[in-house]
Write a structure and sequence with these properties.
By secondary structure, the protein is α/β, with parallel strands linked by helices. The protein contains 14 helices and 18 strands. Strands 3, 4, 5, 6, 12, 13, 14, 15 and 16 form a nine-stranded mixed sheet that branches. Strand 17 and strand 18 form a beta hairpin. The chain is globular. The N and C termini lie close together (9 Å).
């Protein structure tokens, strides 16, 4: 199928893309991590940057439900070279993963009977993707991750204050330990990480227990089939976000918190002329919209409308008890409801060491608030099971202290049916560009620097691979032109 994949990519790259041709003012909508890193890139390239965000200033520490995905979930984010790979293969062979509730081993967390026609079409697009195309899209995603890794390395060097690991820092930790509970799955992922140049050390269960005493009990119990130390890092994203906003403000970026942008003001059909707010239309040379799953109405009139939908994940926090875990961990449990769990080292409100655990997939459709509470409980129970099996002492301590249930958080992440991110450019009045980014399929943090590079290119009139490979109609164009042979 390699020739088909090459032909499909060549067709995608050949599509014409609208790019900016002048002007140095930019309005960004959305203050999640992707847009804030983009704001940093724009400001440092000499653009006049203004950011509008519907939520409060993240430095004010409002209740977590007041925020979007980046600030509203648990205080951990992870970079690895394999983040955001295609999940379409989870849909085979049943073709009902998104329409089957979590309690029946599906991913549907929306309330029964609530799906709209647009959501059903989205699910159908997700389910019917051929294996070779999903593999090809995964390679495109990994290429973005590799480029983003270079961007993160430059930021670590230029802005060490964002990556400080001390008591008052952002919890930066280099290196990730991957754990697997299935031997075959483990071997496949060793090969994948080797191929990508991500592998640092391959570990047997005994070696995992020796190098990581916090996991010795899980290894002795046979829970761990193998370990893999890989390239990557974690940060405490809430602290990172606060420092980044302060840095941006110092560099001249202006913020409008608690301000909703409701739509695009069209100067002419297909030409953006401003953005609509309660105070009236605001204008700039360029616009960058990255609203996560909370702005589908804002995207009305663009090709990205209805293409970015919600995938819920849940979070629990437990104490990092002695012997303490010294590296952040990514746990893979094949076939489990908490199939992949990220465990990030962090600190609690009193400075105590904690483990911030995030996992789960719950499709909400277009409405991030459409959540069946019973199905949500199933996801939390699955994550708790993983914590109990891999960190039994930490789980027991949290239960005894009564803090486990109180630590429950969830966030709704922006996804697309192709599992590719979205990058759309629309002409703006006066020769500028309106850019839509998002839908990064759990990889928004990882890919943020490369999204920033792609936005810089778009408003500056230069091409970038993300402009075509993350185009919102790429999968639709394939389905529209596919032959039976090409979908085998």
């Amino acid at each position: 199928m390699r020739n088909l994949a090459v032909a499909e990519r060549d067709l995608a790259d050949a599509q014409p893309i609208a790019l900016g041709s002048g002007g140095r003012s930019v309005i960004l909508v959305g203050a999640g991590i992707v847009n804030l890193v983009t704001a940093l890139y724009l400001a440092r390239d000499g653009y006049d940057v203004v950011v509008y965000e519907r939520s409060p200033d993240p430095r004010e520490d409002a209740h977590w439900t007041a925020y979007g995905c980046t600030r509203g979930g648990g205080d951990g984010r992870m970079f690895t070279l394999t983040e955001a790979d295609s999940y379409n293969n989870r849909a085979w062979p049943g073709g009902d993963l998104l329409t089957k509730p979590i309690s029946a081993h599906g991913w549907l967390v929306a309330k029964p009977g609530d799906l709209t026609d647009a959501e059903r079409r989205w699910a159908d697009d997700f389910h019917r993707m051929p294996r070779w195309l999903a593999d090809s899209y995964t390679e495109d995603i990994f290429a973005v991750n590799r480029a983003a890794g270079t961007g993160w390395a430059r930021l670590v060097e230029s802005d060490p204050g964002l990556f400080h690991s001390g008591p008052d820092g952002t919890g930066y930790r280099d290196g990730i330990l991957r754990l697997y509970d299935d031997a075959d799955y483990y071997r496949r992922h060793v090969a994948r990480n080797d191929r990508l140049g991500a592998t640092r050390t391959v570990l047997t269960p005994g070696q995992v227990g020796e190098r990581y005493p916090a996991l010795a009990g899980a290894c002795a119990a046979g829970t761990v089939a193998g370990g893999l130390e890989v390239v990557g890092f974690t940060v405490n994203i809430h602290k990172f976000l606060a420092r980044l906003v302060t840095l941006l403000a110092a560099e001249g970026v202006r913020f409008h918190w608690d301000t909703t942008v409701s739509g695009i003001h069209w100067a002419a059909p297909g030409v953006a002329g401003g953005l609509e707010t309660a105070a009236g239309v605001v204008r700039a040379d360029h616009y960058v919209l990255s609203p996560g799953v909370y702005g589908d109405g804002l995207l009305r009139g663009t090709l990205s409308h209805e293409r970015i939908q919600g995938m819920l994940g849940v979070w629990l926090t437990v104490p990092n008890v002695e012997p303490r875990l010294a590296h952040s961990v990514k746990i893979a449990r094949k076939g489990h409801r908490a199939e992949e769990t990220n465990v990030t080292l962090g600190t609690g409100e009193s400075g105590e060491p904690v483990l911030i655990c995030g996992s789960g997939y719950g499709w909400t459709g277009l409405n991030p608030g459409n959540i069946d509470s019973a199905e949500l409980d199933v996801v939390f129970d699955a994550l708790e099971d993983t914590v109990r099996r891999f960190f039994p002492a930490a789980h027991a301590a949290a239960r005894e202290a009564g803090t486990l249930d109180a630590s429950r958080r969830f966030c709704v992440r922006p996804w697309t049916s192709s599992c590719l991110g979205v990058f759309e450019t629309v002409p703006a009045d006066g020769g500028g560009a309106l850019v839509v980014t998002g839908g990064h399929n759990t990889g928004g943090f990882t890919q943020s620097p490369e999204v920033g590079e792609a936005v810089l290119a778009a408003v500056g009139g230069r091409p970038h691979p993300m402009h075509t490979r993350f185009h919102p109609r790429r999968l639709e164009r394939f389905y529209a032109g596919a032959t039976p042979a090409s979908t085998a």
